[in-house]
């Protein structure tokens, strides 16, 4: 386990210079002064971050982590929080729930007054008692596990976006609209997907019959056998649920070869992993419909994309993971600002519980995030989600014309 008191120091300096003078005019709860400010001084506000660079979460964690780094640099370039600089403490659980307790205990012992749990929801679920005992507000901005904020030990645990049960509602609407009644299911065996598959299949059971249910190792190098069995089940459509990356590229390549005319759907991680699309057979992604928590027609998303491209370089590709990481940071820092500092964990929690009508950079334009003492799932509606499809060049073509969730 490698400890870092400061995250990507050289990169942070570059980002700070690029973002100097920027303000949060793209919506959301503004924590920035919107004008040139004195450099922050005093003791830093320490924010812990569980960022996986190895393990299943490494296919998307760096996307969120880079946006968090940019967000911290932006805040510091605009005076910090309450005149104090913000500093990240980074560690990694490597997507392994068994490593969660040691990592989170280390972040807390190093002085973190808030934590961004960017790793899988199964990791955060494992450390809930530690979070509760330490009274450290923890946001899992990329987590979609619906039970993560359930009691016990959930007073200080928050999620940002729509849970996977909302995915089920949206996909069921899509299946009904497309006339799909028989569904084949293929998933990887990573801890993250294992925790999400049950609730999603339960939701699907209300609208379709699952005629094939295949589980394959996340490190699979051949999915032809699974594709053959799925073909034998004669489905109307196929649903792939995975952490994305090579597994999903391999899955769609095999399914495309076996059943090129059968519609395919994806939970969504793969749709934001542009580096993975080229791993699929040319044309294999054509028509693939995927869930996305990012709508590039949302003006706030457009603003954040421009901001992060300036900060991170022209090679940066906007993803919902980046937007979730950025929004999770901003919501947490706003609560600290509202609480008046870092000395009173209960005050930070109370400020989180009073968050209302935050306008995030994910979802459709009408999407909002709020919390109460009994509501720690941020999403206020289904329009934090949208459906997109791929074109014949194995890149997303745009919003799926058949169905979209309404705000």
TrEMBL record:
It comes from the Bacteria. The keyword Signal applies. SUPFAM superfamilies: Periplasmic binding protein-like I (SSF53822). Residues 1-18 form the signal peptide. Pfam families: Peripla_BP_6. Gene3D superfamilies: 3.40.50.2300. Belongs to the leucine-binding protein family. This is Leucine-binding protein domain-containing protein. It comes from Subtercola boreus. The lineage of its organism: Bacteria, Bacillati, Actinomycetota, Actinomycetes, Micrococcales.
């Amino acid at each position: 386990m490698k400890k870092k008191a400061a995250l990507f120091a050289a990169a942070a300096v570059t980002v700070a210079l690029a973002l100097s003078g920027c303000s949060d005019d793209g919506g959301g709860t503004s924590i920035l002064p919107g004008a040139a400010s004195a450099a922050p001084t005093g003791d830093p506000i320490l924010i812990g971050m569980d960022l996986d660079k190895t393990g299943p979460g490494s296919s998307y964690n760096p996307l969120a982590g880079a946006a968090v780094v940019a967000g911290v640099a932006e805040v510091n370039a605009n005076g910090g929080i309450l005149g104090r600089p913000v500093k990240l403490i980074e560690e990694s659980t490597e997507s392994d729930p068994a490593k969660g307790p040691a990592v989170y205990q280390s972040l807390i012992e190093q002085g973190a007054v808030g934590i961004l749990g960017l790793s899988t929801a199964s990791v955060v679920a494992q450390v809930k008692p530690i979070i509760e005992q330490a009274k450290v507000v923890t946001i899992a901005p990329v987590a979609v596990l619906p039970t993560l904020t359930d009691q016990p030990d959930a007073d200080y645990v928050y999620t940002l976006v729509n849970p996977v049960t909302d995915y089920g509602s949206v996909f069921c609407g899509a299946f009904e609209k497309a006339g799909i009644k028989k569904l084949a299911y293929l998933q990887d065996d990573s801890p993250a997907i294992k925790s999400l598959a049950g609730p999603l299949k339960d939701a699907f059971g209300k609208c379709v019959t699952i005629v094939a249910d295949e589980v394959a190792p996340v490190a699979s190098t051949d999915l032809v056998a699974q594709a053959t069995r799925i073909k034998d089940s004669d489905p109307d459509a196929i649903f792939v649920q995975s952490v994305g990356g090579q597994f999903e590229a391999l899955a769609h390549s095999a399914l495309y070869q076996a059943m090129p005319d059968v519609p395919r759907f994806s939970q969504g991680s793969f749709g934001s992993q542009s580096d993975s699309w080229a791993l699929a057979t040319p044309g294999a992604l054509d028509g693939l419909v995927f869930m996305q928590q990012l709508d590039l027609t949302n003006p706030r998303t457009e603003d954040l994309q421009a901001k992060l491209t300036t900060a991170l370089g022209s090679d940066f590709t906007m993803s919902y993971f980046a937007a979730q990481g950025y929004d999770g940071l901003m919501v947490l820092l706003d609560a600290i600002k509202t609480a008046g500092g870092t000395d009173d964990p209960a005050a930070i929690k109370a400020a989180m519980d009073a968050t209302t009508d935050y306008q995030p950079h994910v979802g459709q334009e009408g999407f909002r995030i709020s919390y109460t003492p009994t509501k720690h799932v941020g999403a206020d509606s289904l329009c934090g989600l949208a459906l997109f499809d791929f074109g014949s060049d194995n890149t997303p073509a745009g919003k799926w014309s058949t169905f979209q969730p309404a705000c």
